Amino acid sequence: MSAVDFYNLLPELHEWAAALGFQQLGVAGVELGEDETHLLNWLRQGRHGEMDYMASHGSKRSRPQELVPGTLRVISVRMDYLPSQARPGFDVLADPQRAYVARYALGRDYHKLMRTRLQKLANRIGERVGPFGYRAFVDSAPVLERALARDAGLGWIGKHSCLINRDAGSWFFLGELYTDLPLPLDTPASAHCGTCRRCLDICPTQAIVAPYEVDARRCIAYLTIELRGPIPLELRRAMGNRVFGCDDCQLVCPWNKFATPSPEADFRPRHGLDDAALIGLFEWDEAEFLQRTEGSPIRRTGHVGWLRNIAVALGNAPYSAATVNALERRQQHPAEIVREHVAWALAEQADKRAAASRPG
């Protein structure tokens, strides 16, 4: 490997990555001092909520060489995921009888697909340079993936904390190869949010408490996916019909006018989840939930969490007898958390019916 010209290896890396379906590749170093400070401040303020794993790995998250000894460089890649066939996000949000599912979760889970392709990239590198040290990650270990992608030139971290690429928006996944190869570094991406604050203003629960600062405890993605307990009462109405994740900050971002729909068949909507009726999803029993979410990110929330989330959305929907009937059929669910959210939703429906019957 000592005879390898790593500078001339870079064009080959880009070529191999493109052939594997990645839209971009870059190389970052391992120094993340400012990002470590930002992470520690975020944790100190408790903004990670119940995501204890964010604090359970010490400094390994911000120091790649501690997570994988010998790491000199991080090869960062991105893959577009916006499905071209999906009903437009704002259209679904404007229809309170439908369920909004985050665009990334409409198709198959991305973890296995991207990890498999990263392994193929590593294999190709090994054929070229000989044995080398590496580990592949796709949201599967304590990795500051957005900071590394920024340093690799893939984009800048926006005010909503997502990575933004000036030519491709933000609808993409990230993956990494930690490696001991002394590859030339790419130039970190510069920020281009300027004075724009659309993401802050549109956030339904005001989870973006300041530019570049997100309080996960208020974020609908956290509430519908990571949180295992009851959804705070004061945030339920603001959730609207969002039952798994939230994309408002990305939907409104002006840079996403440059986003390109993904060519990946695995990211196409399955089971009509881009335009599904809330009542229909609420009727899934656990067996149907497991069958329809096989290979899907939605599995993470579990059937109980799924029903909890949809109960809130049904409570937020306009009054209808069909909605009340669907909720009443879940009043005796074995899980207390489902019963509690169903009771709340029924009370919301009763209030709406009463308001509609008042004269004037």
TrEMBL record:
Protein name (record): Epoxyqueuosine reductase
Function: Catalyzes the conversion of epoxyqueuosine (oQ) to queuosine (Q), which is a hypermodified base found in the wobble positions of tRNA(Asp), tRNA(Asn), tRNA(His) and tRNA(Tyr).
Organism: Dokdonella immobilis
Upper classification of the organism: Bacteria, Pseudomonadati, Pseudomonadota, Gammaproteobacteria, Lysobacterales
Record-level Gene Ontology MF annotations: 4 iron, 4 sulfur cluster binding; cobalamin binding; epoxyqueuosine reductase activity; metal ion binding
Entry-linked HAMAP family: QueG (MF_00916)
Localization terms from the record: Cytoplasm
Keywords: 4Fe-4S, Cobalamin, Cobalt, Cytoplasm, Iron, Iron-sulfur, Metal-binding, Oxidoreductase, Queuosine biosynthesis, tRNA processing
GO biological process, one term: tRNA queuosine(34) biosynthetic process
Gene behind this protein: queG
Chief site of localization: cytoplasm
Record: active site: 139 (proton donor)
Residues noted as binding cob(II)alamin in the record, renumbered to the chain: 61, 139, 163, 174, 246-247
Binding annotation for [4Fe-4S] cluster 2: 203, 219, 246, 249
